[in-house]
Amino acid sequence: MPLYAVRMDVAIPDGLDPQLVADTIAREKAYSQEIQRGGEWPHIWRCVGEYSNISIFDVADNERLHEILWGLPLFKWMTCEVTALATHPSDINA
Ligand SMILES: O=C(O)C[C@H]1C=CC(=O)O1
């Protein structure tokens, strides 16, 4: 299945109801962990010092990745940069 690296940068607007923000972050965690358990989100790494992550997705196609990203509860407050990955010719494991 195709692999994708996705960098997510979160920017929560100032002045929002703190309960709304907390609820959204809790829903984000549950949604993310459900997809991780299903195998389509095998890696998520925090970018040190930033409210950002770099994740690896292992999904059927572009449409499925799009569906997952649009379903993120924090999606409205984040920007995503998607990079499709191909095997590197120097990879000794390939
Ligand atoms: O904290 C983040 O990087 C944003 C987001 C992505 C997955 C998740 O649980 O939170």
From TrEMBL:
It catalyses: (S)-muconolactone = (4,5-dihydro-5-oxofuran-2-yl)-acetate. The keyword Isomerase applies. Keywords: Aromatic hydrocarbons catabolism, Isomerase. The keyword Isomerase applies. Gene3D superfamilies: Dimeric alpha+beta barrel. Residues 3-91 form the Muconolactone isomerase domain. InterPro entries: Dimeric_a/b-barrel, MLI_dom, Muconolactone_d_Isoase. Pathway: Aromatic compound metabolism; beta-ketoadipate pathway; 5-oxo-4,5-dihydro-2-furylacetate from catechol: step 3/3. Its EC number is 5.3.3.4. Belongs to the muconolactone Delta-isomerase family. Homodecamer. This is Muconolactone Delta-isomerase. It comes from Gordonia hydrophobica. The lineage of its organism: Bacteria, Bacillati, Actinomycetota, Actinomycetes, Mycobacteriales.
